[in-house]
Amino acid sequence: MFKDSQFFSSFSLDSVSQLSTVTLLLFIPAFIFIARQALPRLVFADPRRLVYPPGPKGVPFLGNAHQMAPSRRWYQFADWASRYGSVVGIRIMRQTVIILNKYEVAVDLLTKKGAIYSSRPKQTLGSLYGGWDFATSQLPYGDELVSQRRFAYRFLNAPEVTGYHAFLAESARIAVARILRTPENFKQWVHMSTGRNIMMMAYGHEVSGEEDEWIKRADSAVQTRFVLGTPGAHPIDVFPILGKLPFWIWGKEFKKNIEAMRSSAYGISQAPYEAVRKQMREGTAVHSMVSKLVEDNIKDDGTVRYEKEIYGIAGTIYFAGTDTSNATIEAFIVAMITHPDIQKKAQSELDELLRGQRLPVLDDRDSLPYVQAVFKETLRWKPVVPLGLPHFLTENDEYKGMLLPARSIIIGNTWNMMHDEEIYPLPLSFDPTRFLLYKKNKPVFNPDILDPEEIAFGFGRRICPGRHFAVSSIWITMATLLTAFEMSPPLDSDGKPVLPDLEFGDGLASRPKPFRCVFRPRSDNIPTLLSDYPPASMARPLVR
Ligand code: HEM
């Protein structure tokens, strides 16, 4: 065996000329393969002298795989950004990965060149074998994705979401009323509330409570989705050819887990869709995204055009929308209990407007700039999707003298963009005033500071289609919590506050680690204001 250096020093053009044609035919491809692994930045630079994006030096074959941090990679990527710049290139075996660390770069590439930056890396295991090929977030760019996004847009665009405001406010009040009664279950009540919003919009299903079968089925499907680890990380995802091997190779649980994934895929997509179709036949369906799309696409023979796209987008919005929204609301509670002065300021702004006589509504947003700023700072401080979702580049591209090769995975480093010191000084501090100017002592929005909503929901043709829905539902939950409760840390046996860990968890959606919070009603009037919730007959979103 040659060591790398011996191999290259023993190789010369003279020796090539002495080789037989057959040897050459075998030798040249082998050389190209090894050289590609070892020297991609030097040997394969574009003739116009474009270079690959800079990044940490890798090793042959593995590339940078062995250097990848086991968790919370956004910190590692931020460190690389400080060393190598706004575009960093790494290689995981044969796969090029390009990390975009600045907002302007993400806009230049993912948004402005959306035609070639909008696909997704393949997830062979989940999509092909596990049955999750319906999921919008995994689809490559193409007709199926475009139809799903068109359907999502129809029900989730900004004016449409305004029509849901009354329902979203009602869900927030139900959650807060439940927290008043059993505060220790606050996370569950928040989850029931975000789950209720999506179930009603997507399927016209009213969530009955903790034991709601639709929520249980969807939550267990989401959990089962991860039974074989982080999507994209399994060897079959890295080398799809391995999927052709018999499943027993991966251990005796593997086949069972794949089957569980398949049945969970059905449980979160086709099962609720079939239930709505049955209700439609029986005349009991409540207007929803699914019922409307079926009505529009049903053919004379009873079959439905775009059936997979319809159950695909409806199933996706549950798992894409609930965890992310819950994690943001939990991050907000953590921010409030660790920053009591900011909490008080937000409450006094609410008190001045509401005078203790009513609960907030979404139309109050413009009159509450400080509360708005708390919301935006929550999105920025602890972005719940810290590395966004990976995009996939479909053609070679060049950017500022760099060659970005086709088939690269492109990561928008949300965490780094949200902690960019040039835009957000002292980025680790939770400081809503960074978004405000004070005119005659009154806060107004500073239009010169980049709105974190422009980053948190991704970019270009893959931007989160649920962002208007998410912003409204999270904002009203935050404002209602602030109106109703003083939120504080519990005390330990020595009377010291037990503060939450500010290091959040790992995963596609990063959320606070388990923590406790004391919810103290802010006035005697709060139980009265919440006494009608949950109401005897619930409101419906106005899905048209
Ligand atoms: C705080 C809450 C949320 C955050 C931070 C968030 C963030 C994101 C991000 C970063 C992406 C990937 C964008 C990209 O690839 O550039 C995404 C995709 C998506 N989100 Fe959200 N999201 C949230 C809530 C929601 C809600 C409430 C819904 C539905 C009602 C939703 C539905 C989706 C869907 C369907 C996709 C896949 C889009 C695609 O692949 O084309 N999200 N979201």
TrEMBL record:
Q: Is Membrane one of the keywords?
A: yes
Annotated heme binding lies at C464
Top-level taxon: Eukaryota
A Pfam family? p450
Q: Which cofactor does it need?
A: heme
* Family recorded in the similarity comment: Belongs to the cytochrome P450 family.
State what protein this is by name.
Answer: Cytochrome P450
Lineage here is: Eukaryota, Fungi, Dikarya, Basidiomycota, Agaricomycotina
